[in-house]
Amino acid sequence: MSSPADKFWETLPLHDGVTLLTRDTNGLTAFDKPAGVLSHPNGTEDEARSLLTCPYDKVTQCFTWKAADGSERKLWLLNRLDSATSGVILTAGSEKMAAAIRSHFANKQVKKVYNAIVFGKPQLKSDIWRDLLATQKAHGQVRTKAVGNVPSETHFQLIKHTQKNFSTSLVRLEPRTGRSHQLRVQCAKRHLPIVGDQTYGDFGKNRTFAKAIKSKRLFLHSLETSFTYTFSGQSCKFKASAPLPPDFLEAY
User: What is the pTM of this model?
Assistant: First the structure.
């Protein structure tokens, strides 16, 4: 028989295709977000395209909806992914839990691993990318430049290079800082644009690639998130992994 806590998670108004990966006893939860789904709605017009298809408060970073019995339910969002990026995204079932985990993100105590398919072949099999970036927000859009004054670091590893109709590489990216569009800009700066990147990528190659594989998605995936946190006086380990989606595998 399901407990009240279980029923809370079983009745979330999740967007089609969003799946629960793991949940611990403190209410820390990881979902697998498909490409094309918003982390949260920017307004009521976006609710149908969001992780949870319900109202969202940008100040408290919290989703709110009504249960079948009319009671109010809440879920706090802990991190964001660009709508075009798929993979691990975290939430918390209480405001206290959300505050605890957000402090870990702020203090860079969360390990995040991404996979990406990029055009080209890296010169090195592994490297540490350190750049000074600049991020601007205007008219509701975020743009990051490869020249600025904000330190950004990513650990890079080549997994596999293939030369078929295109020269592409499957790579592992572990950002040590969390700047907006950091991975996309750092890849592009090294002439390794992420396949399907409509902002910083190679537009001509994107069109040809999309026509060949029948997919226009951004080939960037949040593969794994892990960390150790303290809550109510106890130390807890958390790890969530989202397998590469089928379209990712088919493209490679």
Answer: 0.93
